[in-house]
Amino acid sequence: MSFAYLFERFPSFVQTFVYREACEMLRQQMAPMLVSIRHSDDPENLAEQLDADIFHLPETDEMRAEIDRLREAGKLTGAVHRAIPKARLENDSNRVFEAAWLGPELQRKGIKHVHAHFGGMAARTAWWLRELFGIGYSFTGHANDIFCENDFPVSNASLVRDAKFVVTETDFARQWMQKKYPRAEKKIFRVYNGIDRDFPPHAPVAGEPRILSVGRYVEKKGFTDLIEACRRVKETGRAFECLIVGEGPLQQDLQAQIDRAALGDCVRLLGPRSQTEVRELIAGARLFVLPCVPEAGGGSDNLPTVIMEAMMCGVPVISTRLAGIPEMIQHGESGLLVAPRTPSALAIAIEQLLRDAVLAAKFSQRGRGAAIANFAIENTTRSLKHLLVRLGGVAPPAKAFALDPKLPRGFFDRFFK
């Protein structure tokens, strides 16, 4: 095993991009150890199946009790022994216990670097692995995990400062982080989330044109604007159905909005669906619409994976000019973008593409081409792999060299610069 992926919970059906990357890293023969702090809580019908071992930490109470027993027996390193009493009194103390338990396991396997997704729980545990055992780490920041500050002892600034390198999923986020953390500017890189190509082709279902949206029922997805836009489109007399797949805390509020606007005959909240069902729903849609908005607390989407999925299927996409979304969609060429929180403009865009089949076909073709060119999983994973080797000190297995002739040069360059 060359390095360890460290996840809060793996696999997770709401983080399909992470799952795909791990699968592709395995395919590229990097042999990562897959470590999940918590067990997956996906419903059985939504759970992803992975043909690889996933190493799970013990349940929290069991893990803490074991570390306490080892400490009393004098079997912990000096750094861990000293860290436990102080950490026990602080917020987020489980991260110290997780690192104390996991560190020796990684050392036994010869793993000297871990990579986490999100600047959250797993990244903070990785920070403690560095602090207590000298195991290097890197992480991929996504959206609210980097845009919003936390109140934990290990701050976002600490995560960035001590990482071997940091990945963001858009140029927007890379530039944002470089401005916020200028001393770390040269170790912050952009690697787009990746997507595989085996999506079903665009084949709109018969009957009324279907508008589809997918995402958690939370503020930043902009579903209130989508519902209002649907109300306006319905007022024009145009027939359609709008399906919104997901789950989340705003479900009751969104349903109440649908009921107040008397849209129950054309707008439905479908709840969560498996990845197979989501792909089929996307392929059968006439349009895909995700009107992302900035949250009141400063959070926002960055590079919504589901937009990539719609583009890969060849479904015309409408979204907003927010964060990294304009890096995905070139307005007027591969889709339509409107300003966030403008349901009137959103309604006009929806009506335009429902009316103009030629323009929709253009976006279908060019959107798929852009998805392949920018987000193919084999390319995005390769970019991360090279960063792990060049900057993380990860030594690739022999089979990885055979698949990637450029990898040895990147690996040995570290020693001869």
Report on this structure.
By secondary structure, the chain is α/β, with parallel strands linked by helices. 46% of the residues lie in helices and 14% in strands. It is built from 18 helices and 13 strands. It has helices spanning 16-27, 60-72, 78-88, 94-108, 121-133, 144-147, 156-162, 171-180, 223-235, 251-260, 275-283, 305-313, 325-328, 343-355, 357-375, 377-390, 398-403, 407-416; strands spanning 4-9, 33-38, 54-56, 113-117, 136-141, 165-168, 188-190, 210-214, 241-245, 267-271, 287-290, 317-320, 336-338. A seven-stranded parallel beta sheet has the order 3-2-1-4-5-6-7, with helices on both faces. A six-stranded parallel beta sheet has the order 10-9-8-11-12-13, with helices on both faces. Strand 8 (210-214), helix 9 and strand 9 (241-245) form a beta-alpha-beta unit. Helix 3 (78-88) runs antiparallel to helix 4 (94-108), helix 9 (223-235) packs across helix 14 (343-355) and helix 12 (305-313) crosses helix 15 (357-375). The chain is globular. The model is unreliable at 410-417 (pLDDT under 50).
